Give the backbone structure.
Amino acid sequence: DAGVIQSPRHEVTEMGQEVTLRCKLISGHNSLFWYRQTMMRGLELLIYFNNNVPIDDSGMPEDRFSAKMPNASFSTLKIQPSEPRDSAVYFCASTWGYEQYFGPGTRLTVT
Amino acid sequence: ELKVEQNPLFLSMQEGKNYTIYCNYSTTSDRLYWYRQDPGKSLESLFVLLSNGAVKQEGRLMASLDTKARLSTLHITAAVHDLSATYFCAVRQGAGNMLTFGGGTRLMVKP
């Protein structure tokens, strides 16, 4: 059973550009989470979907961030326009039962 | 607002020694997780604790949960270098699968 898949694994972009991060869930999992990890703020939950529906987006930092889950197995996190302070590792995770499984992460650098 | 605090934040220990990492949380919860993260890697699930008094062990690591005290411990027995990593606890908030993470404990085991 393949794990959570994220792409790209690394992204370097210039300030002002649009960035799209992608996540493919483990088959059969029904909840998806986007997290951001930085040295300063640790691991923060950005948004949580259950059965493709956004349940809580209170962690999304501002309107520049948006997330979609067009089907049960795929999600995107978009930042437009990107800023240097968005530089971080972005993880998605999916759940089955009690367990929450993390993807490998996307390291985003905005210059 | 749920707050999760870990201590210590950094731990340097000799191989063969025992130590305990503490995780305190501020509001009632019935589920607590421990994760391990190696540098540059994703989070790996270690334990899920589901009830008061729950104790789980895997190799040299043992986790316990006291929901009344809002405290979980991760005990390391006879540490070895391979245990060097950052350890996070996470607490479920509400009835869904949203987790709030502690700040992490960076463990270094020296020969």
